[in-house]
Amino acid sequence: MTLMPDRLDLPRGRAALSGSEVAASQRGRILQAVTEEVAARGYPATTVQHVIRRARVSRTAFYASFTDKQDAFARAHLEASRQLLDLIRNRVAEHAGAPWRERLRAGVEAYLEGFENAPSYAISFMVELRAAGTLLLDQRDRVLERHVHNLAALATQAANEDPAVHCPSELEVIALAEAADGLATRAIRAAGPGNRPALGALVVPIVALHEAMFIREAQKEHPATLGG
Questions:
Q1: Among the listed ranges 65-69, 76-80, 83-87, 192-196, which one has the minimum average pLDDT value?
Q2: Which InterPro entries match (predicted)?
Q3: What are 34-57's pLDDT values in tens digits?
Q4: HEC string of 34-60?
């Protein structure tokens, strides 16, 4: 995952980037910089000055795109979350014709690999986000709801393929997503800033949690399910 645009260099002369391209490049560098600074220093200790120094932009350029540090961090989190959800969705799509268990495992592996391959993202958006205020916590909940929707869709597909599968309730799917986040966050925090977290060992327990929720004896009185 990367928040940086494809073209970062600002050539001179005839090949110079347009004003909009320069602004996009600066914005991408700022998003990347706030993510890396928060991962290295912690959210409370990070300042706008730290961010613009790392991004190599002026204070004017920063405030042309963002109102403050929290705004920049929130937008970085939103973009990184979009990339992660796309990664998971695309990986599952690659296994479209496979049994539901294989698709489930592929999604879990993509989720963990996304953070494993981007340590700064992992620390910033799984650990430090909790110190960034209500705005970020609310935004995290909305992102989680998007993941829950995708997971519920997979459960519905699995139920159509396998009579042993039932569609879990919304709260049950949220519980699965929160459990996965909790296990990942614990491992990321243990690895510490600047270190690549080893998350591969979490694939089996996270997949097992999902399978246990998907396949269990249906209760006589069961909460309303998602998608059906």
A1: 192-196
A2: Homeodomain-like_sf (IPR009057), HTH-type_TetR-like_transc_reg (IPR050109), HTH_TetR (IPR001647)
A3: 999 999 999 999 999 999 999 999
A4: HHHHHHHHCCCCCCHHHHHHHHCCCHH
Domains and CATH numbers, the chain: 69-214 (1.10.357.10)
Contact indicator for 131, 44 with CB cutoff of 8 Å: yes
Q: How confident is the model at residue 1 (pLDDT cuts 50, 70, 90)?
A: low
Determine contact, residues 170/152, Cβ cutoff 8 Å.
yes
Q: What percent of the chain has pLDDT over 90?
A: 74
The whole-angstrom separation of Cα 170 and Cα 163 is: 20
Token output for 125: 């958006």
Q: Which of 39, 28, 22, 26 is nearest to 5 (CA)?
A: 28
Report d(CA 209, CA 123) in Å as an integer.
Answer: 24
CB neighbour list of residue 126: distance below 8 Å, 6 or more residues apart: 115, 181, 184, 185, 188, 189
From the number of C-beta atoms within 10 Å of its C-beta (0-12, 13-18, 19+), residue 28 rates as buried
Number of neighbouring beta carbons within 10 Å of residue 217:
7
pLDDT in tens, 87-145: 999 999 999 989 999 999 999 999 999 999 999 999 999 999 999 999 999 999 999 99
**pLDDT(12) > 50:** no
Q: How far is CA 178 from CA 14, 21, 171, 191, in A?
A: 51, 38, 10, 20
Residue at token pair 């209760």: 219
